[in-house]
Amino acid sequence: MNILDTHLLSLAIWIPVIAGVVVLATGSDKNAPAARWLALIGALLGFLITIPLYTGFDRLNGGMQFTEFHQWIPVLKLNYHLGVDGLSVLFVILNSFTTLLVVLTGWKVIQQRVAQYMAAFLIMSGTINGAFASLDAILFYVFFEAMLIPMYLIIGVWGGPRRVYASIKFFLYTLLGSLLMLVALIYLSRVAGSFEIIDMQNIAKIDKNTQILLFIAFFMSFAVKVPMFPVHTWLPDAHVEAPTGGSMVLAAITLKIGAYGFLRFVLPIVPDASVFFAPMMIVLSLIAVIYVGMVALVQTDMKKLVAYSSISHMGFVTLGMFLFVATAGGYMLNDWALKGAIMQMVSHGFVSAAMFMCIGVMYDRMHSRNIADYGGVVNKMPIFASFMMLFAMANAGLPGTSGFVGEFMVIIGAVQVNFWIGALAALTLIFGAAYTLWMYKRVIFGDVGSNPHLEELTDATPREIFILTILAIAVLGMGLYPEGFIQIVHQAANDLRDHIMNSKL
User: Fold this and answer.
1) 3-class SS at 81?
2) 351 and 395 in contact (C-beta within 8 Å)?
């Protein structure tokens, strides 16, 4: 391993952060062109540096790879310790990929405070990569909290009419929950003798009552971030008020941090409590899949519909994770549900970013998100309508798209636990098709209507077509050849299964 490989994760974290600071230094909007180009260079470098994480990843042996260790605050036993395994490496790449698209998405749309807008996304990209790559619990917590600040500003400064309300609600929900996680991490560090996440996972045995308390502390943090029912109400408000780029990152990446927290902390550290709470988690996940899917059916705002759709799809993620530990007699040997949950996380990153991008394209022309204001868009925007059809099909879980892969694997795992759980979970394919195709039909087809602005619509620009093409390749690539993603996840999922089973013995 050369010196570059040993610092890839640091580069993935700090290149975007440094680029963000440089962009911020360009100052006022008279230097907006320079800010845009510097942001694009920073985002492109940030993405390119993550490609070797995929190509150089050892799929057969698994374990933590591309590790980096430096003492940070020795007196507190805090270390700058980075590494990725199959549970995290795909999300570092996905985050950097999304950031590049977000910079391109806001290229012409953002005309005020351009440097600050671009810098916020770049800095947030670095902090999110830091959270996924951290192997020190406090380092994870620092990055976990730091990412809130740029998103708070993105919603609060560049958002819609109720942006202040939405940004404060987002910040308070996510901050208050994470304070309990900090208490749990401090307790675990005293038991493990360090803040190393691996040491916490290898604690010999924690009594069940303590595990239950730790589970509750972690749940309050990660469930809000996912978000799970009933602590999901901040997400639709945040999505509706956020600019297009903010919604893309929020749905594609930041929600995954909560699900990743369950994978990295909850399942391996408190397995007995995970089993104890598995029925509750499955019920809450099914409510998200079914009830929130039904709520999406009655939405009149396109962004709010896709926001509720995200909650429903993320319900599949937590469903898969806790089906993994749901059998009463022990732990499941079959890990279809667990691997499906991770595949769903990656797929949702592609599909949700694409759906919000499509809504943003129309909003930039019409300045309305109301479904009733549209109709007959295909007559004016046929190229755009073709792309949106693909992404709508992926959102509905059509076979051949990425949206089908994770849901199919979770449903298989659910049926192996209980047929009726699998049957209820499969309802998402019906509801997903219902609300997505209903929106698509109303917006893209039908009569042009009475709104005169529809006559002024123009088809997607070359820049928009480029972004939509990249997303289409990702959605179809994962849908037609999921093995390229499953290979990365396979060994890490098996290692997690073995770790949990051994801790049970």
Assistant:
1) strand
2) yes
